[in-house]
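Dear H.,

Thanks for agreeing to be a second pair of eyes. The structure we're designing against is below in token form, covering all 226 positions.
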């Protein structure tokens, strides 16, 4: 009969523990390498290294544009605000001390730019709307086609999907801006509560409160339509 519950020898215990400790050391070393690389990249940005800034724009501009489009529902506004965001980041990188993650710092700049633009338009009583068929940049792709469900090949399903997208977008735009920001950062961008708190410069309790209220309002607005 096969021996059951073979006792692990003292030597094996030492080997297993040593293996686990080595894994911990390797993991810590990997984190240290990443931190060093990030510090070096940040130092290049602070020195005004053009290549480093171009890399930052290449890596982050798509995410920032998507965020700003969701906040404004205006392709041209989002494009302008994306450029303004990276201009402000370039101008302010010397003041960035690394207390927050570089990503959340840039998102914070983007959100502040969107807030400032909203106040500017509000003062001028401009109620801007954007067509789902508006082209995105120089491409032939439209906003609507970019957001559509690619699996919705049937024309009727595609029409319904388009209507749902429009309803959701309108509902998001109807939310108070503080709720909209929290909902988009959490439910669309996938930020943690801590990251949202850093980005919006509020405490985690306020993050959870805004999320709860924003989601509740969205539910009420979309009840029976989605």
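And this is the sequence the design step returned. I haven't edited it by hand at all.
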């Amino acid at each position: 009969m096969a021996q059951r519950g073979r006792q692990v020898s003292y030597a094996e215990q030492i080997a297993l523990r040593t293996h686990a400790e080595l894994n911990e050391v390797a993991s810590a070393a990997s984190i240290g390498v990443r931190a060093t690389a990030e510090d070096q990249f940040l130092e290049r940005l602070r020195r005004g290294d053009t290549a480093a800034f171009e890399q930052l724009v290449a890596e982050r501009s798509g995410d920032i544009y998507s965020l700003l489009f969701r906040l404004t529902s205006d392709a041209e506004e989002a494009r302008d605000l994306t450029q303004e965001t990276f201009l402000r980041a370039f101008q302010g990188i010397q003041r960035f001390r690394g207390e927050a993650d570089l990503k959340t710092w840039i998102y914070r700049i983007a959100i502040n730019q969107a807030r400032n633009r909203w106040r500017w338009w509000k003062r001028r009583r401009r109620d801007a709307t954007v067509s789902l068929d508006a082209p995105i940049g120089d491409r032939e792709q439209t906003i609507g086609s970019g957001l559509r469900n690619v699996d919705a090949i049937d024309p009727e399903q595609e029409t319904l999907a388009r209507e749902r997208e429009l309803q959701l977008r309108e509902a998001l735009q109807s939310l108070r801006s503080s709720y909209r920001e929290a909902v988009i950062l959490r439910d669309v961008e996938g930020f943690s509560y801590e990251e949202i708190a850093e980005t919006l410069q509020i405490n985690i309790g306020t993050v959870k409160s805004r999320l709860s209220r924003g989601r509740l309002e969205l539910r009420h607005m979309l009840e029976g339509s989605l």
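Two observations from my side: Confidence is low (pLDDT under 50) at residues 29-33, 125-152. The chain has two domains: 19-134, 148-226.

Warmly,
E.
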